[in-house]
Structures are given as C-alpha cells and as structure tokens.
Design brief:
By secondary structure, the chain is of the alpha+beta class. The chain has one domain. The protein has a 7-stranded antiparallel beta sheet. Strand 1 and strand 2 form a beta hairpin. The chain is globular and about 65 Å long.
Length: about 180
C-alpha cells in the first residue's frame, strides 16, 4: 500500500477496519478483497429492497464490485476516526459493525506478517487469507484460515490487547 509507507497510523489494521465500516454501511455479505497497486477491489453480496404492487417488500440479492483507491481509503479512515470520537446519545461511543470489528483484527494479524500482497474471502463469518510473503527462496503465498469462532474470540480479546502484542505464543488463525 503505497500511501501507507512511512506513516505509523496508516496500516492494515486501520485500513481494513475502515473498509469494514463501509461494508457494514452498505449491508454487504460474503465479501472478497483483493489488494491492487493503488487500493483494493471488494466484491460482496448486497440485498436490494424491491416493492411489489401490493405494498409488500422483498429483497433481491446481487453481487456488487467496489474499487477503493488510496484517496477513498484515506477518506474512510478520517471519517471512521471522526465517527468513533463522537459520543452516542446513551453516553458511549459508536460500536463497530461486524465487518469493521472482524477486519480490524484480521488487519492486525496481517500487519504482523508484513506481506507484499493481500487477498481474502469471507463466508459466513469465516475467512481465508492468501498473503504473498518474501522468503529466502523467493516470494511464496501463505494461506491462513480464521474460523467464525476464532474471529469472535479475537474481537472479544481486542480491547484488552490494544497497546500490547498480545499473550506470548498467541498465533491466531491456522496457517496452511
């Protein structure tokens, strides 16, 4: 991610968190994300509400493809920070949606790996990541799977782990 080099606050954790918030707002499901040189391509299923002549509504599911370039992502990050700083009417702060929370912990994991390229897909809350890694023998892909339960556990542990590397020996996900 070119625009994130040299800036400690702009990393995969924050970038994916911001993209996750956009996905939550759009009501996307079953998403895939591919990193491209100037941003990301995201595909997912969305539900279009359709009305009938009898006043009853129903939904049609369709696949939607979004391209987020570096400028979009920078704007999402700024909007997300501003949203999180605003108190809610009940005295708390805005809660993260399911994609915002899940993609944040996945982004944290990706930051620890230092990949050259990222691709992942999600199905029913489980994620499979393909990370292009530099090795002594050259570039190779690393596959990592996070089950729905692992994601839920990482999201639940995130507030306690903020500012720390996490418990010694912790290795979320299952490398393949």
């Amino acid at each position: 991610m070119r625009i994130y080099e040299g800036s400690p606050r702009q990393d995969f954790e924050e970038v994916l968190r911001s993209i996750g918030a956009v996905l939550d707002q759009r009501g996307m499901r079953e998403v895939s994300l591919t990193e491209i040189p100037d941003g990301f391509i995201v595909q997912g299923l969305v539900l279009d509400q359709v009305g009938s002549t009898w006043g009853e509504g129903y939904g049609l599911q369709r696949k939607e493809t979004l391209t987020f370039v570096d400028d979009d992502i920078a704007r999402f990050m700024e909007e997300g920070l501003a949203r999180r700083e605003q108190p809610t009417p009940v005295g708390g702060f805005a809660d993260a949606g399911p994609y915002e929370a899940a993609l944040r912990v996945i982004g944290h994991f990706i930051d620890q790996q230092h990949p050259h390229d990222v691709f992942f897909f999600e199905q029913e809350g489980a994620y499979v990541l393909r990370l292009l890694m530099a090795t002594q023998a050259g570039a190779r892909h690393l596959l990592v799977e996070f089950t729905r339960d692992e994601i839920a556990q990482l999201v639940a542990q995130a507030p306690a782990a903020r500012g720390a590397a996490g418990p010694p020996g912790a290795s979320p996900g299952t490398a393949r």
